[in-house]
């Protein structure tokens, strides 16, 4: 009786340990997939709009901050540009001079990819997401200050693509081939700045193990059960010998 109870308890403990181990490796994989990245809502802004940046994938890192490199200077958020509200770096009102490269950096020097933010004094912007994952649908939205969903002409790498009456260029399933410099033009209002559409490919090592972990868990479970049964058998044999004496 005692031995059985002991074995069950042992089994549970070992199982829990294995489970946490697997979960840990799963989180490690996820953390890798979520490489540190800076999150502004889009890449282009009109002057006097407000931008807020957030660093993702670096939670718990010490001295985490949003940085920028402009032709004029390079500095941490809050030093001589923007302010931090604890989680986000915010610029209340942006100017053309705020255009430049922005990134996240930790106290120990880990950096995210840089993001080129463009502020225009013109009246057309192309709303471009910072990054899209391969296979996702993406909408590049061309708008002027006062009107949305109006006819616009789209250009990729300076080559005319097409006119779209809604002002929304939709790519259903993006691939690396869709990367490039995009801009749009609204007749009568003008042209947007250019922004680079980044398409991130799925890499083997960034695919979380978690989705197909069931076979691994089953294997571990079976291994655990077998091990525990062996131990139980051994204990039983030992006990028997003990009583036979
Ligand atoms: C900081 O600002 C962002 C964006 O405006 C907001 O979503 C967030 O809740 C704010 N965080 C704090 C701690 O106030
Ligand atoms: C950002 O702009 C700089 C200068 O124009 C360029 O060298 C760099 O490749 C751009 N980076 C991205 C991610 O678009
Ligand atoms: C513009 O189009 C989008 C998508 O088609 C729609 O969600 C949005 O409400 C439209 N905006 C206006 C101002 O019509
Ligand atoms: C696209 O729109 C522009 C401006 O409205 C016009 O000049 C041009 O002819 C159009 N191009 C095509 C191929 O429809
Ligand atoms: C935006 O587009 C609309 C429609 O073409 C036009 O009437 C308006 O003047 C434009 N606004 C600006 C600021 O260019």
UniProtKB/TrEMBL annotation:
Record bears the keyword Signal: yes
Any GO BP: immune response
GO cellular component, one term: external side of plasma membrane
InterPro entries: Ig-like_dom, Ig-like_dom_sf, Ig-like_fold, Ig_Fc_receptor, Ig_sub
Endpoints of the signal sequence: 1-28
Keyword annotations of the record: Disulfide bond, Membrane, Signal, Transmembrane, Transmembrane helix
Domain Ig-like: 115-198
Membrane spanning residue stretches: 216-238
Protein name in the entry: Ig-like domain-containing protein
Organism: Dicentrarchus labrax
